[in-house]
């Protein structure tokens, strides 16, 4: 292979031309993303590399958002969606979001504990009018 600027001979593993310092574009990405979450990258030398693109679980995102807002049915949904997301992340190698799902579950549990504590405090000490 030759440098496009100065014409010096360069190897396939070079990132810059040793003569003039021009950066060499080693990779061109194929724009199509396959259904299994992979994409093909081809170097100028002709070798192909398969890249796995990781996607975030929608259930994990929903679990986190529902866990942040503590209105009654939402913490329960945050726990359910978080459990579904953790199962999906465990089964699917190119899916991420386990941390968000765990955070959503924890926030949902905290909101439920807070609601139970408030209800118990009102039962034990009712407001006198």
Largest sheet: 3 strands, antiparallel
Strand order of the largest sheet: 1-2-3
Order of helices and strands: EEEEHHEH
Tell me the helix content.
40-55%
Uncertain regions spanning at least 5 consecutive residues: 26-30
Note the beta-strand portion: 5-15%
- Multimer state: single chain
Molecular shape: elongated
The number of helical segments is: 3
Compute the number of structural domains: 2
Structural class per helix/strand content? alpha+beta
Task: Name a few traits of the molecule.
alpha+beta; 3 helices; three-stranded antiparallel sheet; 2 domains; 129 residues
Task: Outline the structure in words.
This protein has 129 residues and is an alpha+beta fold. It folds into two domains: 1-53, no CATH class; 55-124. The protein is 44% helix and 14% strand. It contains three helices and five strands; from the N terminus they run E-E-E-E-H-H-E-H. The protein has helices at residues 58-68, 73-91, 98-124; strands at residues 27-29, 38-43, 48-52, 55-56, 95-96. The strands form two sheets. It has a three-stranded antiparallel β-sheet with strand order 1-2-3, with no helix packed on it. A hairpin with an 8-residue loop joins strand 1 and strand 2. Helix 1 (58-68) packs antiparallel against helix 2, helix 1 (58-68) packs parallel to helix 3 (98-124) and helix 2 (73-91) runs antiparallel to helix 3 (98-124). The chain is elongated. The N and C termini lie far apart (89 Å). Mean pLDDT is 83; it is low at 26-30.
